[in-house]
Amino acid sequence: MCRFLRQNCVRSQRKICSMPNRTHCCLNRRSAMKKKNLIFSAVGVGLLAAAMVGGFVHFQKQHTDRFLKVGIAVYDLEDPYIQTLTDAIRSQLKDKTIDGREIIYDVFDASGSAVTQNTQLYEILQQEYDVILWNPVSPTNVVGILEDAQEQDVPVILFNREPAKADLEEQDNVWYVGTEAKEAGNMQGEMLIQAWNTCEMDKNRNGMLDYILVEGEQAHTDVINRTDAFLQTASAALPLNQLHVISADWARTSALREMQNLSAEETTEVEAVICSNDSMALGVADFYAKQKLPLPVIIGINGIQDMQDAIDAGVIYGTVDLNVPEQAKTIFAIIQGYFDAGAEMPKEKVCYLPQSPYTK
Predict the structure, then answer these.
(1) Can you tell me the distance from the alpha carbon of 307 to that of 234, in angstroms, rounded to the nearest whole number?
(2) CA angle 92-93-96, nearest 5°?
(3) For residues 227, 232, 234 and 237, what is the CA-based torsion angle, rounded to 10 degrees?
(4) What residues are paired with 133 via a beta bridge?
(5) Whole-model pTM?
(6) Residue 12 has what DSSP assignment?
(7) Domain span including residue 339
(8) Are 308 and 332 members of one domain?
(9) What's the number of domains the chain is made of?
(10) Cα separation of 350 and 158, whole Å?
């Protein structure tokens, strides 16, 4: 549960030292400057109410500035899912206003570097953005930035990579928007059960379902929760036999490379490959296409377009669609509720959006 009790405090004017590799740009300004880590900015002229799930409470913040500046800090735009989600957020902000203020948004790409992202976030605070949308590189290390943002009276909406709930509860005006990792893992397990019951999967006739796990970052909370939930659901109904666990850092090319490092016996005997995201699932499919081997059942998580196309074509069995449009709408609705006197806010600090299995 969350409390929306705000202190009437004046934004701190404490000086933040200038950070290296400053990245800033705005499309409606006199000149657009390209920097390494800054990707896009845009100006909006109208804001529509966005649908929210759950209950609401009214909230208000007074501003008289002409522009409402939104800083979007993302973990890595080379990740197709992050690119898709960022594009959806940009679409929600584009050509919109809130309470008469035109929206300006800037996207900062950390390229997978926590150090780079911290530099960008302090630059966002130094430049007095009105709100931060944050897809953290390191979800376990968010407290320092959240404290600095609260000191400067800047609301923060984290998305996609979930921090500890305790970190959210310690600060005012902080939210998380995403999907529940355990639910996604459960859906993967249910899809595998469905495949086992409807397909001829036991190729070697050993009475077991021989499978490989392809995970993202080691010790990442989402990876752990997705994998644990998958195993709990699938093992309750299936005779599982784990052949291997590989870590491919969320990337398609890494998954292809790691599959190439396995023995021929493992890659030919495996009957299912369960992946923590779609990019790695597509990398597994790339391996089998390159080797001209029969495909095992491959299941991912995200619902990116390339994955849906592969499923529709019968190449990959299924994925979990994380409902990107509703995530973007929810993020937008929180911004609107915070800055618009007549809008509403969700009662919860953690906003989980519904997700669904996607199969042919």
Answers:
(1) 22
(2) 110
(3) 170
(4) 72, 157
(5) 0.82
(6) P
(7) 38-179+323-352
(8) no
(9) 2
(10) 9
What are the structure tokens assigned to 277, written together?
């995201």
User: DSSP character for 170?
Assistant: T
**Quick one: 102 and 185 in the same domain?**
no
Largest Cα span, the chain: 71
Kindly state whether residue 211 falls inside one of the protein's structural domains: yes
In a domain, 32, yes or no: no
> In which residue are the tokens 């890595």 written?
76
Q: Are residues 214 and 82 in the same domain?
A: no
Please answer whether residues 98 and 339 qualify as being in contact, where contact means their C-beta atoms are separated by less than 8 angstroms.
Answer: yes
The continuous run of DSSP H or E covering 273 comes out as strand 272-275
Per the DSSP assignment, residues forming a β-bridge with 319 are 358
Q: Please list the pLDDT of the chain residue by residue as tens digits (360 residues).
A: 333 333 333 333 333 333 333 333 333 333 333 333 444 444 333 333 333 333 333 344 444 478 999 999 999 999 999 999 999 999 999 999 999 999 999 999 999 999 999 999 999 999 999 999 999 999 999 999 999 999 999 999 999 999 999 999 988 999 999 999 999 999 999 999 999 999 999 999 999 999 999 999 887 889 999 999 999 999 999 999 999 999 999 999 999 999 999 999 999 999 999 999 999 999 999 999 999 999 999 999 999 999 999 999 999 999 999 999 999 999 999 999 999 978 888 889 999 999 999 999
In-domain check, residue 24: no
CA dist 295 → 203, 230, 271, 279 (Å) = 11, 21, 8, 16
Q: How far apart are CA 70 and CA 131, in angstroms?
A: 5
CA distance 62 to 333: 17
The length of the chain is: 360
